[in-house]
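tool_log.txt
---
The assistant was asked to compare two proteins side by side. It first ran the structure predictor on the initial sequence, then on the second. Raw inputs and outputs are pasted verbatim so the downstream comparison step can read them without reformatting.
(1)
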Amino acid sequence: MVTVRLTDDSKIGRLNITPKKEITRKDEETVSVKWAVLRLSDPNYFFVFNEEDREELLALDEKIVLLGCKETGKDISTVKELADELLPKKVKPKPKPKPKTKAKTPSKSKKE
């Protein structure tokens, strides 16, 4: 589920998004991916998508996807591009550096 709240510079102080759900600048609620995608261009909403939303986003109807692409205001046209735009970037873990091997110094044996 997508989290939504009002933006800090919203002209609205509080808003009922459903009869039982109300959002403010500090109080957030969860909404469906479809509901959020259709309102992406509204400057009063601040949406937070999670990786768990990927499956629902990729399963959206083609008409909803096209509307969502227009709502972003960017030059995207596929559901994959829309998902990449809305979902947080995947952080690849950096590989651990291999420990440096120390060169063995030949020990000098005393010969007498």
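(2)
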Amino acid sequence: MDLIFTSKMAPEEQKDEIVKYVSLLETNYNQTIRELKISIHKERMKIKRSSFEKVNEVSQKNELESLFVECIEEIRKGIMKRRLKNEIMNKKKYQQIEKNTEEAREFEQSLLKLAELAKNRVKI
């Protein structure tokens, strides 16, 4: 700017040079702003993509955890059933309880109720 004012240009030429200079500055600023807006847009898209991926990952983990818990519960039920059958068989074997007696049925039902209570208490 100092060069323009100290030069021996006519005032009209000085005005034209200043207008060209300001126009060039404005063009550079607008280009920089445009590039920054594009950069911001790209970063926002990356964030959204990352967020969606994270949600999908958490969702898949929850599904796998649920499946795992269901499998554990099924295994526990199987173990409880085997233990009850063994307990009933041992009771019948050692105490000589007959299979069709009322005492044997009551014993089996009480063991089944006990297993159900234990299963409900042990749930994950």
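---
observation on (2): DSSP finds three helices and no strands in the chain. The longest helix spans residues 11-95.
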